[in-house]
Backbone:
């Protein structure tokens, strides 16, 4: 059987995982999978069905009706739910908050596990998320835990939103980041934590560009080894 390589990049929201993962995937010719987008797709689905994430009894039933496909295109990863491309609709603050809540449900995590693992069996892949190195791909060839202080992450997210022309308030962005960190690290199902064999990279005080080169070299060296 052909051997495919996998790189796991985990860490809290706004640490720069997707920027680093995308650049590394491009440099290595790997597929890049943003696993957060899959949780966001589930959140979108249950929101559209009129069910809040607190109505946990109804969530397993709704999962049966969610046919999720991931389309890797030239312009990036597209999320297709029951035949509809919802990529442009999953980045709102409401879906972010709902995704953090549905991601805490073990029925949702179990439902998405095979989808993620199957992709790693078919491609050389870089996945970013929260539990890739610990649960989804414990045997990944390279594991990185990328983090930065909440203030640095809020500043980056705030600048990003402003650049996109969206209204943003730094204190609200910071509060949302701290809240999501709490949800993601305190949940019992696959909480956000560094795998024992992951390389810890803290980008506090650095620009992502500064960290990018170092990380790319590290990934390449580890893959060679
Ligand atoms: O990375 P993101 O902000 O798009 O992720 C959305 C939510 O999904 C976030 O609250 C954490 C959760 N998530 C997760 O629990 N496990 C993953 N592998 C990826 C995301």
Residues:
């Amino acid at each position: 059987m052909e051997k495919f390589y996998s790189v796991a990049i985990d860490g809290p929201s706004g640490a720069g995982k997707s920027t680093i993962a995308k650049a590394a995937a491009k440099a290595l010719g790997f597929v890049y999978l943003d696993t957060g987008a899959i949780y966001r797709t589930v959140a979108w689905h249950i929101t559209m069905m009129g069910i809040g994430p607190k109505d946990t009894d109804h969530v397993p039933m709704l999962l049966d009706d969610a046919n999720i496909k991931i389309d890797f295109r030239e312009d990036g990863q597209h999320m297709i739910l029951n035949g509809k491309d919802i990529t442009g609709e999953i980045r709102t603050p409401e879906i972010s908050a709902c995704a953090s809540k549905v991601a805490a449900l073990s029925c949702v995590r179990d439902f998405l596990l095979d989808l993620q693992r199957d992709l790693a069996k078919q491609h050389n892949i870089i996945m970013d998320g929260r539990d890739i190195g610990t649960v989804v791909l414990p045997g990944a060839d390279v594991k990185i835990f990328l983090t930065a202080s909440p203030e640095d992450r809020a500043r980056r997210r705030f600048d990003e939103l402003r650049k996109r022309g969206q209204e943003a308030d730094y204190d609200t962005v910071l509060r949302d980041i701290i809240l999501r960190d709490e949800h993601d690290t305190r949940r019992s199902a696959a909480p956000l934590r560094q795998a024992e064999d992951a390389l810890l990279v803290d980008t506090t005080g650095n620009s992502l560009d500064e960290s990018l080169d170092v990380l790319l070299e590290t990934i390449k060296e580890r893959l060679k080894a």
Strands lie at 6-10, 31-34, 68-73, 76-81, 84-85, 125-129, 142-147, 199-202. The first strand starts at residue 6 and ends at 10.
